[in-house]
Amino acid sequence: MRRSLLLVGSILVLFAGASRAQARAIPDQAYISGVAGHAQAYSLSCESRSAADWAAYWGVYIDETDFLNRLPRSDNPNLGFVGDPDDPWGYIPPASYGAHAEPVANLLRAYGLDAHAGLGLSWDEVRSEVAAGRPVIVWVIGSIWSGEAKQYETEDGEVVTVANNEHTMILIGYDESRVHLVDALTGYTVTHPLQNFLNSWGVLGNMAVVGEGSGEETDDQEAEATNGDAYIVQPGDTLNKVAARFELYWPDLAAWNDIGYPYLIYPGQNLVLSGEPAEPVAEQPVENERDTYTVQAGNNILDIANEVGVEWTRLAWFNELTPPFLLPSGTVLELPAADEDVPQPEIPETYTATQSESLIAVAQYYGLDWLDLAALNELSYPFLISPGQTIRMQ
Fold first, then answer.
1. φ, ψ dihedrals at 115, nearest 5°
2. Residues 31, 261 contacting (CB under 8 angstroms)
3. In the prediction, which pLDDT does 210 show?
4. E strand segments, the chain
5. Do the beta carbons of residue 311 and residue 354 sit within 8 Å?
């Protein structure tokens, strides 16, 4: 019997693009803003959901269902998707399971993205990717749970490492003790202790998809710089994207503009592109001014928060929005200043769920750990709450 190696021999090729970040000391903390998460549509579609959200960060918009349908089908997760995406989650092959990094990366390349699968990656290699502004799709266990690797023999006699509760998230930030990830289950950004993440990521052998967009740049993007020394931030920009566009090291760009963690920028902001003083640049009008945002059809609070560079909870608190954060088109939201104190709402004894609620969103809104809240209410996977349900908060 032969054992699957999943590109172990090509790690140097995969991380050639990270050499610029690795040539310098890896920063102790980094955060990529602008990765908008969405909840997966099927029980076992976390890989397709993460792939679609990862691609969208690079400006390539993929429908989750289309991506899922285009994944090859196989009893080997290193070759394709195993089973039915509507089947229950948590099992291992030959039961319905999902897919590993290799088929996901292959399909992302078919969409024109520079994506590569890796196994046995080090934490420094992955940190270098994030520090360079490149989000990383990671294979973990559940909601950063512990787990046990198991061996599964495919119909072709290949032995593949699998694990119960296989799941994907997008790593978008880290510091010395924590990581920040976009969870495909809910679409929300979650924070976990670094060691818990490393333990969970290690169960499937430190598997990930790394890479970036095609690297092609339009004439319009080049023209957005007002001169050789300054740039006016446009809607949808992130610090990482601007740095990559002008072939700059993003921590330098942050330092030149006095931008600190979590490195947020906003439309209309004037960025200098070197350490030398830039000539004054006239502000250009953008679709939304910094102090307000007018809700457009199809907007949700997470997308708006990412676009304007404000934590979604601060945006909700500032505008006295409550779950489930319904935003009719035309609603005008006030945007808090970066240094403005926004009081957190008091935690009630109980909370009554309304339509389209998420336990995680409710917990984050009140500053609670959602797993603790689930345990308090004896809720188990997939942690659904229904309209009219009373949730104990304390």
1. -110, 145
2. yes
3. 95
4. 2-3, 30-31, 114-118, 136-141, 150-153, 158-162, 166-174, 178-183, 189-193, 208-212, 230-232, 270-272, 292-294, 332-334, 350-352, 390-392
5. no
State the burial class of residue 197 (Cβ atoms within 10 Å of its Cβ: 0-12, 13-18, 19+).
Answer: buried
Helices H, strands E: what count in the chain? 14, 16
What is the structure's pLDDT at 276?
A: 63
- Alpha helices per DSSP H over 34-158: 46-57, 64-70, 101-110, 123-131
Let me know: does 273 contact 228? Beta carbons within 8 Å: yes
In 3D, which of 161, 160, 151, 115 has the Cα closest to residue 135?
115
Dihedral class, residue 320 (left if φ above 0, else alpha if ψ from -120 to 50, else beta): left
Specify the pTM.
0.58
51-92 per-position pLDDT tens digit: 999 998 887 889 999 999 999 999 999 999 999 999 999 999
How far CA 134 is from CA of 21, 93, 206, 346, 385, in Å, comes to 11, 31, 17, 37, 34
Query: How far apart (Å, rounded) are the C-alpha atoms in residues 366 and 344?
Result: 7
